[in-house]
Amino acid sequence: MLDAATLILLVSVAPPLLCALLLGSLHRGPSGPAALALSWGGAVAALVAAPLNDRLLAVLVAEAGEAWGQAMATGASAPLVEELLKGLGVLLLLVLRPDAVRGARDGAFLGAMVGLGFEMVENRHYLTLAAVQAGAAGLWQGLWVRGVLGGLKHALFAAITGAGLGWARLAPRGRRRLVVPLGALGAAVVQHGVWNVVASQAITDALCSTPGPGAACQPAPPASALFLTVPLIVAFCMAPGAIGLWTALRRSGARAANLPPATGETNRRLHGAPHGQG
Question: Does residue 82 contact residue 138 with C-beta atoms inside 8 Å?
């Protein structure tokens, strides 16, 4: 039998890792940058974001009070910090391995890998809390809600930023090379904020299933909440980002297909100069 800590670790890591393996099998590109992106998300972005978020929360609470400070941290500062750190991983890969970021689709893929690495670490924190509060039932409920239903949220947020950075890789020089990635980062932050403010609270309310105002939560959520209401909340709150990303990638693919064959300097921009020189 597995001890509780090992079980929580496996439950936290397994869904994002399976998604990463599936995405990697579908992507045509070198595997090294994908592994680096996954590692950045878990070993750098997630671990650096946690103390930064705690520090900003303390500052906001001290300046604006408990309620407003918590609200600003949840809806604004935490999404901004986390998306900046995840996007930095894609940006570093773009600089260090330009051959791995050949356009918006590669950028979105690497962003998704960063997000999945981030998800592994964040899952462990929240699933540990679920197991402490509700035992084995809380752990398996958390696996369903966080690992399965909401398991791609950080991948989606970071993929939006990555797509913007990948698009800039092929763009001609000009303001759009800066404006588009910043706009993509802003969209990722907004989508992340919507998740934190709207989806998280709606999911909590659905699982609590109180019989009336002020009443205590039910000991166990009804099956309709777990298998109907919560999936609908997740789909509704993630749909704007998913549709926007899909549309952008389709347009980017059509634009790349209409480009002339890469030769000379264009080929170096697309695939990187020999010996890793940009």
Answer: no
